[in-house]
């Protein structure tokens, strides 16, 4: 592959066909030649922010092995561009590709705080931890511009409702003031994703994410302010970051994480094609080894949809990963406990002063 053919700053290197569409588009060589002659760009590679207007914002999670009951996503699509991201497939429901479109067409839910407050006021709603975000990162670059996540955290604080956060962006520290207030009432838990200690690996796997140094600092600052942090060492990808499990666990523990979780990578839906294309362009010397070892964890396939097994994997390679995880927990997390969030305050704040009458 020619260096000029590589799309810098992006994870996916193509737009895969949308499985819901009858027709597909392709960029032909004659079109590229026309653009060259005319001095035009065939692809501007710029991010678009597209407002959308959903009627609800809180999603009920029905998958039994996900570990959350409810989630909400202020943004659809994610500019971080993580090549392995399972959320890529959801972009097809919006009429886009799971490939480059997922990273460059970011759907913005400006009404999210208003919709969340409506949920908080609902007479039928009972306190249940809502996770920001179950799908795409709530602190991705768009948040710096739109501040939707911050506004949502203010709603959670107002109603004393428990909230979980999943992110790999140091931008979360901007909202340290609100997080500290939530922590006073044991209402927030943060999950910080750390996939590798190698910047070289981080840059190709997750091109627009915070550096590893910033992520470890984020864990440390949150922990120093009493905010409980669980590290997400996920996904573990054989022959890419699987050898880092012990070092990753020690690093996040040393910086104050109280626990860690992991998954074995699976390439569901369009991600199989996107990842395969990516690794043959970025790591051609070990592409087949990586793909074969991923398949070895999922019964000979890149994907596995079986609940309870899909995220854990099976076979000898998966067993080696699990053995390392058990050892890491024993060595670095033996005396640590991630606290449960408080679900008892919400009812008193649900109706405000109306409770007095």
UniProtKB/TrEMBL annotation:
SUPFAM superfamilies in alphabetical order: Radical SAM enzymes (SSF102114)
Keyword terms, alphabetized: Iron, Iron-sulfur, Metal-binding
Domain Radical SAM core: 61-310
Superkingdom assignment: Bacteria
Entry keyword Iron-sulfur: yes
SMART domains reported for this sequence: Elp3
Tagged with keyword Iron: yes
InterPro entries with a match to the protein in the record: Elp3/MiaA/NifB-like_rSAM, MJ0683-like, rSAM, rSAM_sf
A Pfam family that the UniProt record links to this protein: Radical_SAM
A molecular function GO annotation: metal ion binding
Name of the protein described by the UniProt record: PA0069 family radical SAM protein
Natural source organism: Maribacter algarum
